[in-house]
Amino acid sequence: MDSLLQKIYKDISPLIGQGKVADYIPALGAVDSNQFGIAICSNDGEIYTLGDAHKPFSIQSISKVFNLILALELKGEELWTRIGREPSGLPFNSIVQLEYEHGIPKNPFINAGALVVSDVNQSHFASPRIAVREFVKKLSGNPNIQIDKVVADSEFEHKARNASMAYLMQSYGNFNNDVESVLYSYFCNCAITMSCVDLAKAINFLANRGYSNIKKKQVLTKNQTRQVNSLLATSGMYDEAGSFAYKVGLPGKSGVGGGIIAIVPGQFSICVWSPALNDAGNSLAGGAALESMTKHIGWSIY
Amino acid sequence: MDSLLQKIYKDISPLIGQGKVADYIPALGAVDSNQFGIAICSNDGEIYTLGDAHKPFSIQSISKVFNLILALELKGEELWTRIGREPSGLPFNSIVQLEYEHGIPKNPFINAGALVVSDVNQSHFASPRIAVREFVKKLSGNPNIQIDKVVADSEFEHKARNASMAYLMQSYGNFNNDVESVLYSYFCNCAITMSCVDLAKAINFLANRGYSNIKKKQVLTKNQTRQVNSLLATSGMYDEAGSFAYKVGLPGKSGVGGGIIAIVPGQFSICVWSPALNDAGNSLAGGAALESMTKHIGWSIY
Amino acid sequence: MDSLLQKIYKDISPLIGQGKVADYIPALGAVDSNQFGIAICSNDGEIYTLGDAHKPFSIQSISKVFNLILALELKGEELWTRIGREPSGLPFNSIVQLEYEHGIPKNPFINAGALVVSDVNQSHFASPRIAVREFVKKLSGNPNIQIDKVVADSEFEHKARNASMAYLMQSYGNFNNDVESVLYSYFCNCAITMSCVDLAKAINFLANRGYSNIKKKQVLTKNQTRQVNSLLATSGMYDEAGSFAYKVGLPGKSGVGGGIIAIVPGQFSICVWSPALNDAGNSLAGGAALESMTKHIGWSIY
Amino acid sequence: MDSLLQKIYKDISPLIGQGKVADYIPALGAVDSNQFGIAICSNDGEIYTLGDAHKPFSIQSISKVFNLILALELKGEELWTRIGREPSGLPFNSIVQLEYEHGIPKNPFINAGALVVSDVNQSHFASPRIAVREFVKKLSGNPNIQIDKVVADSEFEHKARNASMAYLMQSYGNFNNDVESVLYSYFCNCAITMSCVDLAKAINFLANRGYSNIKKKQVLTKNQTRQVNSLLATSGMYDEAGSFAYKVGLPGKSGVGGGIIAIVPGQFSICVWSPALNDAGNSLAGGAALESMTKHIGWSIY
């Protein structure tokens, strides 16, 4: 594994810093773009790292995965009456489709879908703003994981587009809680900071048929695990899901903080991080690292 | 395997005949809806069948897979300058997206994308109307495969919507040949009749890392094979691709004739057929059979 | 004139009560659908009435006309950098177009456009919630015009769709004030109650080259008056603007309370009211009355 | 009148040649952009001209007016089951709306609507390709009006987008004749060449309550005339209809050849011509000339 990581690094090091750090809020725009980390967590519990793998970063949309898993535990299949399971074919924050589909978002990984998932969790948890944080602490075995309040507050100040989507869904009867409260919970989830190591550990159960070696517990059934992985594979990378499947061939999820998680079912989980993004909003060097990895291991799910 | 087929049949036999046979052209509408066949072709060349597995049917959109493979052999990666690799999120014949994307179809399995693929093949083959038929004869080892001219001519008579898409792409500079000629070639491909056995054999190379045991030849490289499977997984089932991934978890492609092919990479290929369709235009009993199969084998790609 | 009103009434009396009273909020749904009133205010100041012409009703979207005139007085031509002057071709509350046009609404009479106008007025008036009410008191010469708080509060409770549009515009930088405050001002304007007589008097200046006989003052220049009338003619009747021009041929504006105002330039202003609406949300009997009127006077602007 | 024309010319002469001549076909692109003509035809038959008023040019979309009048004579109100009467709010050749509205174009002056009108005329006339030419010969009193075959053939070669729209309407059952034949008739109508004088005379009946002083005949009833004028006012200027109403305030129709006709009901008809177009595809100097005219006469329909 360590030699695999070296090969990957050799392939992609010229790309580190290429692309553009997300800057729609100042707290994200200030991140140094020349960072790169990678962590692998094997199903037998070994951790392999390279570069800035221990440095916490803003997980942003990767939180949608944990958010979804919490809601699936609560609602099971019933969740799919309020959200679709289809790729959207449009940018992550498109509002057109939401009107066309009468307030039912296409899948849980576009913003509108994640807001419905947050609305589901808001109805259930006593402290919805920290429910995801508490969940990832246990999944990763790291009790020190924090929400970056500066980021959360800054996202809330720039809430207009997400607020527009939430209100549109409310107008179609697909939003039950106060819009502003749900938005704040949602932004708190996005503002969680974790390292590559934290994330690789936290999602390892998705590579391990639902069983978490850290939590020592079955998080999802074997079947649910396959289902979540299928959603990641078809909808996890915004409007690059198809290209990511074509080039990398693994279930994955990216965030505008520059992190990407991916699953090698039956073998290991992986998290890469590099803050500069490509035009689709996915980490440029991170995506290249995963493409290099599947080339070197000669394996993808397809 | 034979006992697997029996278990599947037991699960889904109440569904046979449920749904609605495609009837936009008379030749398809006349098919008896109470038919069901299934054929598995293992990577070591064994064939397992049940029901009407030897009965030829109209392969319709399944032809898009063969059409694509021919064009990939001709053009390689250059093909993707004219077609995307992303799921569409909209019905297979939507024209909105085509205008929004300035004439570049989202993927090769929606109608617009298959028409561009046909246009590519039209530019190259001496007899474009029969190029796919000759290709599937060799892939399946069955020299008697035919084009149903009644179906092809009837589709051509009802060409209006496909003609509209082709002309729209031409208006954006993404169509090189005479629209009517390409449409007729395209309809001839859709009107090929094959049995479940023919199809399971013809696509086995996709389960076998690109090598065809029938043709005794590498059809695609190992890497290209993974790429085609990824496209099938993200875009093969129209606007049900996500649900199909969620429930079945295999690369697959359906046709309105009631056939569905699917790939279990490294193991076997499978074809099911039952003419009555669900609301999304996919075989109702066929989809259920594949869902039953992955449940019984306890395996999917995810 | 009185005989004209009698002829109109004879033509349309069978239609009174046909259609459906707006019921998206309870306060509007409770209105008796069998009411009909009509008032004409000639440019020399004469008032002609028939039926329930003195009964106050909820002016709803007719308030958009007064809202616009206030903003035009403040901003002049500069207003058109934030709103278009084109018919929308889509329902009054469509959000698709707003995304397509990057937050610039098509015209000031669709909801999104009226919200931008309200945002402009919110930035200027000390008491924006009552600015329009004070304006119409002076224009109509009736100091007793009220805002129905039950209606305003009920609209605010059902604000989701309008909130969605306002936030979407904010996300594009085309909304300056707090969304909730502007929405409440907007709903207060819609909840003004006026009678046919009040409205016919209040808008007479649009028939009288900008001069109000009631206020004894030039409200708009002659040229601005023509411009406002042109906007009413092309965009005043939601997605029925073209049909209304075809059948009636006058600048007009409707509200879901069942009122319609219309302008006969150089001659008189008119207001009809009947609460039951057609499918496009315009008063069914009211629209028929205006059609009857232009037939009897043998005159339209075209 | 002559002094009015002089004033207009003084106002707009700096604009002549500004903008861009249509160049999607070579025959139009070759026209000298520094030309300007204007002709007024009063209801008592007087002609007033300035500049290149006698020079024939390609009438292009202005032909849609004559095309519509022929179809209205044939079908009357029944025509509106196949075409709407609403402004489109989108560019003249948008295909999105056509899918959204299931093949019913918004109005007879966008391309899709004009194609349906052409389809209606195709079903009736023995020589549909010349029906409009014969009609305008009589209306203008000029027997020498020609179809420019070079232009018609060149348009036909570039037919892709119009073909796409026609086939889409056919797929919805709203197109009865062979697509290619109707397209050729349509392009022949667009390729008619007329001068400002020809056009001002030909449309004078629209200013004269339906009666043509040239043909000495009632072409449309008084009521139909008003209706056609209302359609011109709400939909005659593509997606600039609202701005044209706001600035000019007259029913009008433009063509990409640089001509614009306009109607002053009860008084006169006017045609301006200058080949260079603004971004919306309307003659830049021509639009300015009409705006100058209504300013000088202090009158518009609103």
UniProtKB/TrEMBL annotation, chains A, B, C, D:
Q: Which Gene3D superfamilies match?
A: DD-peptidase/beta-lactamase superfamily
Enzymatic reactions:
L-glutamine + H2O = L-glutamate + NH4(+)
Tell me a GO biological process for this protein: glutamate biosynthetic process
Note the coiled coil stretches, chain numbering.
Answer: none
The EC number(s) this enzyme carries? 3.5.1.2
Query: Which PANTHER family does the entry link to?
Result: GLUTAMINASE
Q: Which family does it belong to?
A: Belongs to the glutaminase family.
Name the UniProt record assigns to this protein: Glutaminase
* Organism ancestry: Bacteria, Pseudomonadati, Pseudomonadota, Gammaproteobacteria, Alteromonadales
